[in-house]
## 1
Amino acid sequence: MKKSVLLGVMLIVLVSVLFAGGAKEKEGYVFGSDCTWPPLEFVDENGEIVGFEIDLIAAMSKRSGVSMTVRNVAWDGIFAGLNNGAYDAVASGVTVLEERKATMDFTTPILEVTQSIIVNKSSASLANEKALAGKTVGVQIGTTGHFAVEKIAGVTVKAYDEIGLAVEDLLNKNLDAVVADSIIAADFVLANDNYSDKLTVSGSVAGDIEQIAMAVKKGNSELLNLLNENIAALKADGTIAALKDKWNIL
């Protein structure tokens, strides 16, 4: 009898420890980010990961009391990493697309952007997609800008692993233009001393306004609800507006 009681107590303690361990693991979340997209996420001169989404994650972590960290990963394969559990969410300027909704869930939008055309100031202005016909245009592979330019007849598309590589090729006159999210374009043209006197945003590619959100694995309602709750609160108290001002996001 005593042995049975003792065994029961030990089992209760063991189960309690296991549940406590499981709860502890859920206290922290990891976000996968391709940190080559200033001002959303990038590595600064000190080797630190910074940017609008990085600050937003930090603000959500502080408000919720839940640990949230960022892992720098390549864009190519970023959603595969989410699906196989390498991280819990993706915060990397992700556009909400119907086809993506089949394999992942999105938070409420955190930003809205269009596709901008960047050219050298010394070159002819290219105002819209019609002006891109017959031109060589650089994009980042697998992005919305890439998809948009591929639909334009007569354009030679050059896809790069990073948008910065496309911009450098533009400066070297190997491209006629670069198409990128308006947020990214504004950063390269307006906020970067290396480019502001050499490049200009001359126009935009027609299309729907993009909604940018964070992505979680399909069915992860716990994390999705946590993020949505914090996004709503940080919009309401002005935190997100302040972060947009900090990172020159219109």
## 2
Amino acid sequence: MARYTGPKTKIARKFGEPIFGPDKVLSKKNFPPGQHGQNKRRKTSEYGVQLREKQKAKYTYGVLERQFHNLFLKATRMKGITGEILLQLLESRLDNVVYRLGIAPTRAAARQLVLHRHVTVNGEVVNIPSYHVSAGDVVGVREKSKSLEVIADNLAGFNHSKYPWIEWDEAQKAGKFLHVPAREDIPETIKEQLIVELYSK
């Protein structure tokens, strides 16, 4: 149930990207936080670059260290390219799928909707954000929650065609998870190979 609850703009500025969603401060201060933020930094070591990429992935998907490491171990046991499989496992988390469906504006908001029992998988309420969504599963808004203003506002005008691995049914307020996304379809700018190299040390 643990998650990062610290200052999000600070983290976004550290990576120079709006990893938690649109950020007004980041557009004005696109440099690292702290009194030396605008100074030229010394060259980061290879380990530092790899660690930074892992932290970026963890913050982006809202996963803490132990859970992230367990996902990596799971990815190593599966057939295929480990880095890509790791990202696909992260994309298959229920909170992330809810975010991709446009039901919530951020992954943190999606996590909250799941925890508050507003989301169903195949018609059954699921309140576990890390729940693994499989191909063919239908993720939707609970009947009682369809009238919630926050959900209606998020879905208004949302472009579902951005994510070809999801099929949205507007009438049912539900989306079918067709298959795990290919790496080229995942929009996150994460260099997953650096994470694999870090864990392989």
## 3
Amino acid sequence: MHKSLYPSSRNRGFTLIELLVVVGIMAAMLSIAAVGIQNVDKGQATVAGLSQTQALMDEARSLAIGRGTRARLCIHADSSEEERNLSFMVVAYEEIERNAEGEETGRQWRVDSRGSSLPNGVYFHPDLSENASSQVSGLGTFGSNGTGVRFPGDRRSVRNPNYFYYEFNAEGLASEEGQNDPGAAFVLCRGVTGPGASQPRVIGNDVDGFIVWRNGRTSPIRDTSSISQ
């Protein structure tokens, strides 16, 4: 019996075309996986920023109750300082100065923390925060252009008037002095800023946030699609 000069189809290896197809499929799958991992990391950065901010909100509320005064979470908003604009936050409280007779002689805001920066590429978004606040009936909004707070690391000799803030009163309520509607929405985004930017430019519609209610408690914004328009 003569053996065939050609190997049977069962023993034949892959052809060059088949190998190229397999390699192409593997490359495509690796690219998809890499994009997915990047998106997870970026989404996690936004979530981490929200957790960080909620902790600072709790710190400000506890400070207000403990000192029996007003306290604020202040967000840096000076576009000339791009590295801190809309991403650097401090907790401050209002100190009431009195004379020997106990009469009030003045008030000023003092920083009670070293400051905290949001994760890289994550920013507070003023317009989206205001938009989210307006969609909840009876909800107030954050403050802006407050009396001067000197942020840690400020290069100025004067107090910085350029910041947004969320305020708590001595009872721990999220209510700014003189404001009728309590509470506010807080929205973060993954984005970019540049010199002179008053708002971050959102990347990939990566937006998330929470509501600060009258009692100072927070709850997540379930549907961010309506506020990101």
